[in-house]
């Protein structure tokens, strides 16, 4: 029996319902005696916490932004890619959820074990292929009879796209994505056992007027060595507090100090026409737009950093630094 205490109003409402026949006392007793059982499917084991799934989602949000930039540059058309879901399901269920004929790119990600699958909906893949070949980005789904040339173009494009996966994983582990297999029939692909838990990240992809999905399937065996790094604590820790190798900063500073940079003192500049340039002869004088009493500009690595005045030291030409150029050291261009 439950230890919950009913209020007087609740008691009155219950007695009224019993007296009018709206509720049956026998049914209430039977319902109380029945055991409440929560069904658990052992084939659909949850091996990742919600916190770890959220971390993977953040990683692939970054990957989606990188892919958007990459495909926009390659295809020269409107591209929008965004994460819409992240789920952990059995591998068999994932294979049943995708078309029998689709674009399947299998990648190895050393030093991690196992392989990662990137499934691209044929509508999206053919829109990309059409743009690469100079078309408007129209989709014609004929993945079952891809030509050898189309296969090569597609595999090269997705291989270069997946190279950007390294940047999405940089905070966890330094991976080296390598394409291991290109397939179009999902029934011929068996990466892991059917009951193995995989994380499926679904990316909604828009290429021009064509929309479809790109699915990233990551088996548990790939993520197992880095599961501790998927916690919020790891992601939120201050990167400045991460351990550094002894003497790392000192070695870096020494190497930077030994780097060679060019230093140029510019006496002045002028502008002439092509015709004047072609008629120049020995003895001609070119007037510079620099007065002799004005300081010279000293450039370091082609960037103006100082002002100086000309002179001589031990019968050699030299310049003496007068002042810093404002903003010169902060110029990141």
TrEMBL record:
Transmembrane segments: none
Flagellar motor switch protein FliN-like C-terminal domain segment(s): 255-325
Topology of the protein relative to the lipid bilayer: Peripheral membrane protein
Localization of this protein: Cell membrane; Bacterial flagellum basal body
Keywords: Bacterial flagellum, Cell membrane, Cell projection, Chemotaxis, Cilium, Flagellar rotation, Flagellum, Membrane
Keyword Cell membrane attached: yes
One matching Pfam family: FliMN_C
UniProt entry tagged with the keyword Phosphoprotein: no
Function in brief: One of the proteins that forms a switch complex that is proposed to be located at the base of the basal body. This complex interacts with chemotaxis proteins (such as CheY) in addition to contacting components of the motor that determine the direction of flagellar rotation.
Family: Belongs to the FliM family.
UniProt protein name: Flagellar motor switch protein FliM
Species of the source: Bacillus kandeliae
Lineage summary: Bacteria, Bacillati, Bacillota, Bacilli, Bacillales
